Amino acid sequence: MVARKLETNGAEMPPRKRAVNAVALDEAAKTNGTGANGTRGHRRTGSGLMSRRRVKQILTTIPLIRQEKLNVYVFGTGSMAELGLGPEAKNKEVKRPRLNPYLTVDKVGVVDIAVGGAHTLALDSTGRLWSWGGNDMGVLGRDTSGGEVLKEIKENGSDDDSDDDDDGDLNPKESIPGLVDIPESVKVVQAAASDNMSIALTSTGTVWAWGTFRCNEGLLGFSKDVEIQRTPTELTGLSGITRVAAGKDHILALDAHGNVYSWGNGQQFQLGRRVVERTRMLTLMPREFGVHDAVGLGSGEFHSFAILSNGDVLSWGLNQFGQCGVPSHFEDGAVVSRPTVVPGLSGKNIVQIAAGEHHSVALSREGDLYVFGRLDSFEVGIETSDLPAYTAKDANGRARFIPEPTKLTRGNEPDGDSVPLPKFTAIACGSHHSLAIATDGTLWSWGFGETYQVGQGPAGEDMEVPTRIVNTATKDVKMRLVGAGGQFSVAAGLPKPE
């Protein structure tokens, strides 16, 4: 549910490094290709016998910690402390992007963000991780018990800037960003956040996790022995990891050689493998499932993506609204049960994928957006009159979803004027809304807006097409990062050069 400027929460493909890959390919050709002696996949030893040797190609590397420190902006509804603006009740609704005073360049210096359903993780330039939001499932990775929760707003009444009906203030330990309890010796380079789980990728390629998983029946657990893991713990069985991504209640990890691992809830086939009820607890252990040669990951709430080194995109999981982009599967069982090529994204140079509950957005290397999935809350950002002929309709002829990736071409200025869309560098999806950063650093949003998560002002209306966000706090800011949760959004940037 989060993204950074074109580079790697959705899925992001790293820049191709010909020197590294060329060496690996040359080595592979020497050992696995056809040699001068006409043999294939073998090399001749001193004894004249043939032995098989496999050279693993390095496709991705562990990212370095960014050093560009950013200010953080938040908007939407923060009834569970999602906005991180402090405990006062007036901070529960923010209708346009607002600078978070706790997360400025001089106080923290955020370099990356990961947004879950109701919490956020922020990485600073020293490799430390900060968290805020609802902590019922231990996702903040620190103790928030004992925080004083005020029962009433100030005696003189509600603040004029707040339309919040809930007059209770928030737990300050949840609503004020705090450091995650990870040992100082551990340097985090990337994070991922689901509804109930937090993930940290370290500079050595190990993975730390905390929180829990839920399933259709309720609490699934963190592991077979632990229901809720409230402090960060290092996961065994994972090494050489270079990317992580999170769905609603499942996690994906990618290693340097292109192998993808998954764990968590798999009832909608989002793990890429069949889940048998009697062995359901085994899904809590990270495991490969047959996806290799991957260079990027992406995840929706109940579906998943992998970008391959050849440019193809695979998807799997829940697909009843075409959110996997595999048009032949949305009527047959409503799931894509195994990783399947998304035909509409082949040849599109996809570098990042973000997704919500029932919709998906893909970003190309050229800066174009491709959308597919549900239409009910304008999640895909296409005006009703411009829907393609292959739009799926219900029995009453009502347009329901777009089953194939479709290029977005037009958006709106804040005054409603229709304009050609610019090129983009980063994308993010919440449950039913989407955001994108244009090459000029402006922020665009579309989809469900009732809780102000699209940042377009007090009306709280849905945005039918991508619309540029304009307000005083961000008019001179060039955004670098963007993330989206269930009912809120987070962005980070710096003032534009004068």
UniProtKB/TrEMBL annotation:
* Protein's name in the database: RCC1-like domain-containing protein
Where does this protein have compositionally biased stretches of type Acidic residues? 158-169
Q: Which InterPro entries match?
A: Ran_GTPase-activating, RCC1-like_dom, RCC1/BLIP-II, Reg_chr_condens
GO cellular component, as recorded: cytoplasm
Give the keywords, sorted. Guanine-nucleotide releasing factor, Repeat
Write down the Pfam families for this protein, in alphabetical order: WD40_RLD (PF25390)
Which parts of the chain are coiled coil? none
